[in-house]
Amino acid sequence: xxxxxxxxxxxxxxxxxxxxxxxxxxxxxxxxxxxxxxxxxxxxxxxxxxxxxxxxxxxxxxxxxxxxxxxxxxxxxxxxxxxxxxxxxxxxxxxxxxxxxxxxxxxxxxxxxxxxxxxxxxxxxxxxxxxxxxxxxxxxxxxxxxxxxxxxxxxxxxxxxxxxxxxxxxxxxxxxxxxxxxxxxxxxxxxxxxxxxxxxxxxxxxxxxxxx
Length: 212
Ligand code: 5GP
Fold this sequence. Notes:
Elements: E1 10-14, H1 21-31, E2 35-37, E3 41-42, E4 57-58, H2 61-69, E5 73-79, E6 82-87, H3 88-96, E7 100-104, H4 107-116, E8 121-126, H5 130-140, H6 145-159, E9 167-170, H7 174-189, H8 196-204
Parallel strand pairs: 1-7, 1-8, 2-7, 3-4, 8-9
Antiparallel strand pairs: 3-6, 5-6
The chain binds guanosine-5'-monophosphate.
The site of guanosine-5'-monophosphate has 14 residues, from strand 5, strand 6 and helix 4.
């Protein structure tokens, strides 16, 4: 039987902008105990209603570049002209402590994480269609048309990466999508290699005395 790793599980969730991934993952961590959402670093300015240390760790471009230089990021990417990244030390510390962690990051970041940590479970979230994505993007954004077009072009490229992920969910109905994601997390937790500690005492009750 494989030996059990005490480390937590790492999940990444990627989706085109306006698919609703943050809302879905925020609900996911509410329904699943012991699953935490990672907080990224970004050089983009906070939007109205966003809080430093809650939605993101908002830092300057210089501070972000200093983190890149000292290899303090597990992954990072330039998305729509701003830097985004995941802190290496805090991610490592949480996994070492046995916490299951979910990173909501773009496809470039997901690729880097999977190269460094091949056990990562990668989930891609699709909107119901390109048209629905466009409607959602137009509804929520006050960005100029050029920015909208850029996000939609990026979405087309990102969807090309779907075949490199382990799982795919469609965000048509929030509750259904959260349920599917929860199912993936629960199934991954139940893999044999991750259950050894729990099952060993049970299996031992089945052994015939004197043969151990
Ligand atoms: P937003 O500015 O709308 O919050 O996020 C823009 C994009 O950056 C989204 O696709 C989001 O998933 C991605 N993103 C957020 N945090 C990170 C991160 O830590 N690393 C990477 N690579 N992408 C991120």
